[in-house]
DNA sequence: GAGGATGTCAGTAGAAATACGTAGGGGATG
DNA sequence: CATCCCCTACGTATTTCTACTGACATCCTC
């Protein structure tokens, strides 16, 4: 049987041991190395080429996110599960950005970590309960904000057409050619749009339209 | 003890009974109504004002998503858990958009539903394993796409600063004032940016910068 | 049929952006 | 020290955008 090779990175021996025990209760998993710092993690990852890296987010020299970014820059498919003390939104979203596949908050049960390991080795992502809560909260805040703004502003069909063309980077002349109307008319629409949406130039107009989800 | 009032909506009696049993094993929960269609759900929700609505996504007259949207438009804080046969990405993301707080795929265990009920009643979101997998897959695809584009273009610190100000809708003069440099210099940066990023005007520049995640 | 919303177009004027090219000072690096 | 990159800055010319005002036809509604 081919065992999955796992590298553990944490500056606390006790945590390393705990994770190691947890991992090695599974016969198809084997811990092939332990790192005590960010730099050591980078070295060992290169040398050992593990199937999975389980890493603390806070380490003395370089934090887990920076290590993740470095590793994932060189090894885009690498599997990394982050262990963190915190369910901080910044941390979590940065990890997602960098391509980390798992994120488990330490005060959650060991089964969360096991589930994360299983999922990631199967090629899926796994963010633990608390981590998801944070993401969903952020997401729904965004949605809520969009909803409340959306009410007041109502655009005509033509105006929506125009604002989309503006967002595509066309000049008034180009829009006029495409719509078979005068460039002056396009400019009228543009002016009306800016007035309706309380902005001072086309760039802010496009941003606002994006926020209101008017572009496609 | 104040019991949490729950409304169940599903066109299949067997599913309703199953959910009902599951719910009423908890002493602090009580099923106060059952709806067999989308329209009935809307009526009962208005009349009964439940603390939580557990609803099938597919119903004869109006599907669960449309019902959700209608209810949430009138009751922005309403708690809704969607039961679905499918882990379709479109369904899930639409539910998120509308403000649905829970999404459970039917072939998952009953404990997923219980967990969802608990979480939502506590004011949190809960999307079951399969639903999350879909979202994360989508998310990481986006990240991956972004990454591949990012390589070629490298901007200097000053250029990044400028492109962000452009994205904020400032004119060259305003940027010059803020950065204590000549407006001509700002225009030089702007021109260099447009050349580097192969675009013809500021709007396309901003869009490109957004794609490359250069704006904060 | 009066009134409102929409889409169309124009004049005038000034502000801003874009397209060219050129160039010096400073820092890092070989 | 030569070279490259970055930041800085200017000249000239043209295009595009923004601001403000006024106007007319159409369609819908009350």
How would you characterize this protein structure?
Chains A, B: Residues 5-121 form the Response regulatory domain. Chains A, B: Keywords: DNA-binding, Phosphoprotein, Transcription, Transcription regulation. Chains A, B: Residues 148-213 form the HTH luxR-type domain. Chains A, B: Pfam families: GerE, Response_reg. Chains A, B: This is Response regulator transcription factor. 2 copies of one chain form a homodimer. The first copy, chain A, has 216 residues and is an alpha/beta fold. Chain A folds into 2 domains: 4-138, Response regulator (Rossmann fold, 3-Layer(aba) Sandwich); 157-211, Winged helix-like DNA-binding domain superfamily/Winged helix DNA-binding domain (Arc Repressor Mutant, subunit A), CATH 1.10.10. Helices cover 56% and strands 13% of the residues of chain A. The first copy, chain A, has 10 helices and 6 strands. Chain A has helices at residues 13-24, 38-48, 64-74, 89-98, 110-121, 129-150, 157-167, 172-179, 183-196, 202-211, and strands at residues 4-9, 29-35, 52-56, 80-84, 102-105, 126-127. In chain A, strands 2-1-3-4-5-6 form a 6-stranded parallel beta sheet, with helices on both faces. In chain A, helix 8 (172-179) crosses helix 9. The longest helix of chain A is centred in the middle third of the chain and has 22 residues, at 129-150. Chain A is elongated. The N and C termini of chain A lie far apart (51 Å). The mean pLDDT of chain A is 83. Chains A and B meet through helix 6 and helix 10 of A and helix 6 and helix 10 of B. Chain A binds a DNA duplex (30 and 30 nucleotides) through residues 156-159, 171-173, 181-182, 184-185, 187-191, 194, 200-202.
């Amino acid at each position: 049987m081919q065992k999955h090779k796992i590298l553990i990175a944490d500056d606390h021996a006790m945590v390393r041991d705990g994770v190691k025990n947890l991992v090695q209760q599974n016969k198809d998993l084997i811990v092939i190395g332990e790192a005590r710092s960010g730099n050591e993690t980078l070295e060992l990852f290169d040398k050992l080429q593990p199937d999975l890296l389980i890493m603390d987010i806070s380490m003395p020299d370089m934090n887990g996110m920076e290590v993740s970014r470095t590793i994932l820059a060189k090894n885009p498919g690498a599997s990394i599960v982050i262990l963190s003390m915190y369910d901080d939104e910044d941390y979590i979203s940065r990890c997602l950005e960098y391509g980390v596949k798992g994120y488990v908050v330490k005060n959650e049960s060991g089964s969360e970590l096991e589930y994360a390991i299983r999922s990631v080795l199967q090629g899926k992502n796994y963010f633990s309960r608390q981590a998801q809560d944070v993401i969903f909260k952020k997401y729904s805040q965004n949605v809520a904000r969009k909803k409340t703004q959306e009410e007041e502003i109502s655009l005509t069909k033509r105006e929506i057409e125009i604002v989309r063309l503006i967002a595509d980077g066309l000049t008034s002349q180009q829009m006029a050619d495409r719509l078979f109307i005068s460039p002056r008319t396009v400019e009228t629409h543009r002016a009306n749009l800016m007035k309706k949406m309380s902005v001072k130039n086309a760039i802010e107009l496009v941003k606002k339209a994006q926020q209101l989800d008017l572009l496609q």
